[in-house]
Design a protein that fits this description.
single chain, 158 residues, mainly beta, four-stranded antiparallel β-sheet
């Protein structure tokens, strides 16, 4: 069996334009399934083998984005923030059996907590029609996990 990831994401939202501001409520439904084949080393002493596994998760996310932009000296500055409540309403993680020579252990898959939140913010400055700089932050907040990610970027169009 080969490694494979399949998924689907659907989103429904509504864009309220309030002059130079916006409010975008959203509802997302996501499904992801990943399968991994078995692993077996060849040659050598104390060969490692591991069974294949299948992971599946379905989640519902409800939230909104708010934003505002300003035009300053023919440049567009856009600031936005979002927040989402997350419900991982279905998670199935099979265990993996790992063997090293005569020793065998079973490792249970690890999932997220059922409830959590995602939040983030973005700042974007369009310098010209073809040049933009931006800064993004995304955070994931679960009962046993916090994840923080930042992105600094330069976009050039031609």
């Amino acid at each position: 069996m080969a490694n494979r990831v399949e998924g689907a994401l659907s989103e429904i939202g509504y864009y309220w334009n309030l002059q130079q501001s916006r409010i975008v409520p959203k509802v997302d439904l996501e499904y992801v399934r990943a399968t991994t084949g078995t692993l077996q080393e060849m040659g050598g002493l104390d060969l490692v083998t591991a069974s294949g596994t299948t992971l599946a998760r379905a989640r519902l996310m409800i939230g909104a984005e708010i934003g505002h932009y300003w035009i300053v000296d023919q440049k567009v500055l856009d600031l936005s923030a979002y927040g989402k409540a997350v419900d991982n309403f279905s998670q199935n993680f099979s265990s993996v059996v790992v063997s090293l020579g005569p020793q065998t252990i079973t490792v249970q898959g690890i999932g997220e907590s059922q409830y959590g939140a995602d939040a983030g913010a973005s700042a974007s400055l369009a310098l010209t029609n073809t040049l933009r700089v931006y800064l993004n932050y995304d955070g994931k907040f679960r009962s046993q996990l916090q994840s923080h990610q930042g992105t600094l970027g330069l976009e050039v169009k031609w």
